[in-house]
Amino acid sequence: MSGTWWISEAPCAGDARFTPDDATVDSLRTPQTRALLAVCQQCPFRSRCIALVLPRQSMFDGICGGRLWFHGQVSDECEAAHRGELEERGSYINHGTEAGARAHNRRGERACSLCREAGRLAQARRRERKRQRASRQ
Predict the structure, then answer these.
(1) Which residues sit opposite 67 in a β-bridge?
(2) Exposed, middle or buried, 7 (CB in 10 Å: 0-12/13-18/19+)?
(3) More confident site: 86 or 27
(4) Exposed, middle or buried, 98 (CB in 10 Å: 0-12/13-18/19+)?
(5) Whole-angstrom Cα distance, residue 20 to residue 28?
(6) What CA–CA distances, in Å, run from 19 to 28, 39, 51, 102?
(7) Of the candidates 9, 64, 13, 59, which has an alpha carbon nearest to the alpha carbon of residue 37?
(8) Cα separation of 49 and 18, whole Å?
(9) N or C terminus: which one in the chain shows less Cβ crowding within 10 Å?
(10) How many CB atoms lie within 10 A of CB 97?
(11) How many CB atoms lie within 10 A of CB 128?
């Protein structure tokens, strides 16, 4: 996977219904969920989505890569889904953390906006601690 430029181009971009906070197996198996899976039908980014989220490793709940996931297991999928998209390369990235920013770097990709911000804040904290130590001496 080379970068995350495609995220804003994905048909699900910005739609929180794909990753509900209060997911249960019953809340995920609804006619509305089937309609959301249909959005994934023509999406050219299904395998990239799986490679980014790593739903098995992260115990993901929601829709990712044209599949409905509950606790990291496929519960349903869109008609166009195929097994070759399910490969999870790399390790899980905890987005929005300094460790997430480092993980993006290890993969050789540009960090997502959440990880870039977390890395920036961590760097600012380190600089402030260094300034405080220098002023005490």
Answers:
(1) 64, 77
(2) middle
(3) 86
(4) middle
(5) 9
(6) 10, 14, 16, 24
(7) 64
(8) 12
(9) C
(10) 15
(11) 10
In this model, does residue 67 exceed pLDDT 70?
yes
What pTM did the predictor assign? 0.59
Structure tokens at 59: 């115990």
Length in residues, the chain: 137
Q: 108: which DSSP letter? A: T
User: Residue 66, SS3?
Assistant: coil
β-partners of residue 52 are: none
Looking at residue 127, what is its pLDDT? 93
* Residue 1 confidence class, pLDDT cut points 50, 70, 90: very low
Q: What is the pLDDT of residue 132?
A: 93
Place of tokens 């601690």: 129
